[in-house]
Amino acid sequence: MDKNTRAMALILCAVGFMVFAALAIYVAIGNRSSGVLPEGTSVRYSAVTRSDTPESRATQPTLSAPASNDEMVRVRDYAPAVRIDLRYSGKRNMTGKAIYDFRDAYLRYGTVKKLIRAQKKLEKSGMGLEIWDAYRTVQAQKKLWKVCPNTAYVTDPSKEYSSHTRGNAVDVTLVDSDGTEMVMPTDFDNLTKLADRDYSDIEDQFARDNAKLLEKTMKSCGFTPYKEEWWHFTDSDNYGVLKDFVPPQ
To answer: The pTM is what?
Structure first.
């Protein structure tokens, strides 16, 4: 092989190597962007976490504390670990229709602070709170009274204002660490004796124990339970009625 032939062979080898390297880089980039890993590569996959789990919401930043306890605040801004399922914003209530059109729970800041304490206590046992009703407008109270004019369950708005319209009452239940509602004596808005705090007529021991735990926890954090509804608790600190406050939709 003469000198020129050897030089040409070397050039062709160099060009071939460069083409091969370029193809290898192209394939590697394509696999990485498409999520395909080269054969033999191992990777540790993390579990997919829903964005609305208590853990993920607990890590969300909260706002600075209001100047006073009587200020109305959105609960999830200060207690993101507490789950929200406002039953009166949908049909899962005794009226079978929406009573108000907002989906965020609002309460007095002083009440929220007590709710946070209750949530933290329950978290030690792998549980938490879910809010079924919080602040309720006066107009919503009138709608409820029209459907159920029974003072055992609904405050007559023509005579007095419900604690819900003061922003210091909350209807809550227990959920497990995954956010699943735990067994309780009844569902929300059950207008029977099974919903009261005499748990002797509740056959399911888990339901009795859960209701008692919820009551004990809420009382220890400054709430007063209502005797006819296992889910209803009022802040021991009273506030004036809110006639004009309407939460945004």
So the answer is: 0.74
